[in-house]
């Protein structure tokens, strides 16, 4: 069995440091890995990233993250990534990593993702250059997720994004802002690669559970949705021995 | 929940849909707040803020800024703190 803990949208700054720590101390007893689904900071500053590193570094299990839109607000996502990486957190963007979870190889591929909307109500790559740039960004990011998922050499694949790959987990949000919360292209990438589970955040008023058109289970782990420090998902009901996992491969 | 009623609803910024939009943008774009997960709605003369934030300080700052920039409106604040306890159960997906 593989035990995956996940949370997104923690929006850490100095005023939040220490809030998660009591629950995180229990993490090694509950999960083999922690996935962070973006919006780790409030404004994407290096100072805030250091607060994230303080809160989510040195946990005793591997921590894998993608950035969110808030983590881009200061136009320095590379600096945020560097601070997190220096703290031992693996940051994915069109990349993947494989963990050995007691004999089972867990592959995680991640991207921030982007908006665009869902089938029948989505933006098109047409018209003004601004519109083409918007949808072109969506398509490029979704393609990079597909490539990263396909490149994983593992037993179980998990997709980690900030933006939503399906509308199911947005229920509760105003319909009018669905195009800003996710896009169908992420779902198509997830469906193309034999993915077992897709995790995302971003939609604070959404719901936890959904399914892609291809049948992949989707969970919205935004902190205001799960209402706890993290949720834990168990995959693979075999008798694989659970030991401390280690990063066996990173990057692409 | 905290509710602040202002007896004087005379204001230089009437509580219309433009004010509602301005509050929504204030919550997102003001560097002291940067919250996109809050719902702003109007009910007659009352502006309602709803959602969860990560600290008491953030909730207090939101209320202070909205009151400062939209003086004289009835403001109903239903902003909670997101719980950060460890999960009691796991979901079996096998």
Task: Give an account of the 3D structure.
Chain A: It comes from Catenuloplanes nepalensis. Chain A: Residues 2-204 form the Calcineurin-like phosphoesterase domain. The complex is a heterodimer of chains A (252) and B (94). Chain A contains eight helices and 14 strands. By secondary structure, chain A is of the alpha/beta class. Chain A is globular, with a radius of gyration of 17 Å. The model of chain B is unreliable at 1-10 (pLDDT under 50). Chain B has a four-stranded mixed sheet with strand order 1-4-3-2, covered by helices on one side. In chain B, β2 and β3 form a beta hairpin. The radius of gyration of chain B is 16 Å and the shape is elongated. With 94 residues, chain B is an alpha+beta fold. Chain A binds chain B through residues 1, 3, 9-12, 15-16, 19-20, 22-23, 26-27, 30, 42-43, 70, 73, 196-197, 204-205, 217, 219, 222-224, 227-237, and chain B through 31, 34, 36-37, 39, 51-52, 54-55, 57-58, 82-87, 89-94. β13 of chain A pairs parallel with β5 (91-92) of chain B.
- Total count of strands of chain B: 5
Mean pLDDT of chain B: 86
Percent of residues of chain A in beta strands?
Answer: 25-35%
**Which sequence of strands runs across the widest sheet of chain B?**
1-4-3-2
Listing every helix as H and every strand as E from the N terminus to the C terminus, the arrangement of chain B reads EHEEHEE
Uncertain segments of chain B are: 1-10
* Number of DSSP-assigned strands of chain A: 14
In quaternary terms, these chains amount to heterodimer
Q: What class would the helix/strand composition of chain B place it in?
A: alpha+beta
InterPro entries (chain A): Calcineurin-like_PHP, Metallo-depent_PP-like, Metallophosphoesterase_sf, UCP008292
Keywords (chain A): Hydrolase, Metal-binding
Protein name (chain A): Icc-related predicted phosphoesterase
Organism (chain A): Catenuloplanes nepalensis
């Amino acid at each position: 069995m593989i035990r995956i803990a996940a949370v997104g949208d923690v929006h850490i700054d100095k005023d939040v440091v220490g809030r998660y720590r009591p629950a995180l101390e229990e993490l090694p007893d509950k999960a083999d890995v922690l996935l962070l689904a973006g919006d780790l900071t409030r404004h994407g500053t290096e100072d805030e990233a250091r607060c994230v590193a303080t809160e989510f570094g040195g946990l005793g299990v591997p921590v894998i993250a993608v950035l969110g839109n808030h983590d881009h607000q200061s136009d320095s996502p590379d600096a945020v990534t560097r601070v997190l990486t220096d703290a031992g957190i693996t940051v994915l963007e069109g990349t993947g990593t494989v963990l050995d979870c007691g004999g089972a190889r867990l592959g995680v591929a991640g991207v921030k993702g982007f908006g665009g909307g869902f089938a029948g109500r989505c933006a098109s790559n047409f018209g003004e250059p601004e519109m083409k740039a918007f949808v072109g960004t969506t398509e490029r990011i979704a393609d990079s997720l597909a490539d990263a998922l396909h490149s994983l050499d593992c037993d179980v694949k998990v997709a980690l994004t900030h933006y939503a790959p399906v509308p199911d987990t947005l229920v509760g949000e105003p319909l009018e802002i669905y195009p800003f919360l996710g896009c169908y292209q992420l779902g198509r990438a997830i469906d193309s690669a034999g993915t077992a589970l897709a995790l995302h955040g971003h939609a604070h008023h959404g719901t936890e559970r959904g399914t892609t058109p291809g049948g992949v289970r989707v969970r919205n782990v935004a902190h205001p949705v799960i209402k706890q420090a993290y949720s834990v998902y168990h995959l693979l009901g075999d008798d694989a021995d659970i030991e401390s996992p280690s990063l066996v491969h990173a990057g692409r | 929940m905290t509710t602040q009623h202002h007896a004087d609803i005379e204001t230089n910024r009437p509580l219309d849909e433009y004010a509602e939009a301005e509050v929504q943008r204030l919550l997102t774009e003001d560097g002291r707040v940067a919250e996109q997960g809050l719902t702003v709605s109007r009910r007659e003369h009352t502006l309602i803020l709803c959602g969860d934030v990560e600290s008491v300080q953030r909730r207090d700052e939101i209320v202070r800024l909205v009151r400062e920039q939209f003086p004289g409106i009835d403001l109903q604040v239903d902003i909670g703190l997101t719980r950060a306890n460890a999960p009691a159960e796991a979901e079996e997906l096998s």
